[in-house]
Write a structure and sequence with these properties.
This protein is of the alpha+beta class and about 120 residues long. It is about 25% helix and about 25% strand. It has helices spanning about 55-65, 80-90, 100-105, and strands spanning about 5-10, 30-35, 45-50, 70-75, 110. Strands 1, 2, 3, 4 and 5 form a five-stranded mixed β-sheet that branches. The protein is globular, with a radius of gyration of 16 Å.
């Protein structure tokens, strides 16, 4: 089984991803990548942060340590390059079923169900 990106979403980007530009050179953008099984309906969210080196340095100075998991650093914002990078990454993975594939995809972004445990009622 392979996966396809259905679409990208972001609370930080107003309007079209293609024409959007950060207001300053130091930026961080939360992007939700909605991915689902190829040739099947449905999708789940995998969240990443795309940021500038300046933003990362500012965070490191403020916090002391920045956990780099699911953080991607770019020198300048170029949506076409960012989109292509994630499209290429998603196509690298395959698995026998969706749960196994989603677990692999969680290497790219924070999977909305990564630590989900089904609640059993008594």
């Amino acid at each position: 089984m392979k996966a396809n990106i259905r679409y990208f979403d972001s609370p930080d980007i107003v309007g079209d991803f293609t024409s959007w530009q950060p207001e300053k050179s130091s930026f961080a953008v939360l992007i939700d990548i909605l991915i689902g099984p190829e040739n099947s309906e449905g999708e789940e969210s995998f969240s990443v942060i795309v940021c500038s080196p300046d933003w990362l340095a500012q965070e490191a100075n403020a916090r002391g340590i920045v956990d780099g998991r699911h953080i991607y650093v770019v020198n300048t914002w170029n949506w076409s390059s960012v989109r292509q990078y994630f499209e290429n990454r998603v196509t690298e993975y395959s698995a026998d079923d969706w749960p196994a594939l989603a677990l692999l995809l969680s290497r790219i972004g924070a999977w909305e169900f990564e630590d989900y445990k089904e609640r059993l009622d008594d």
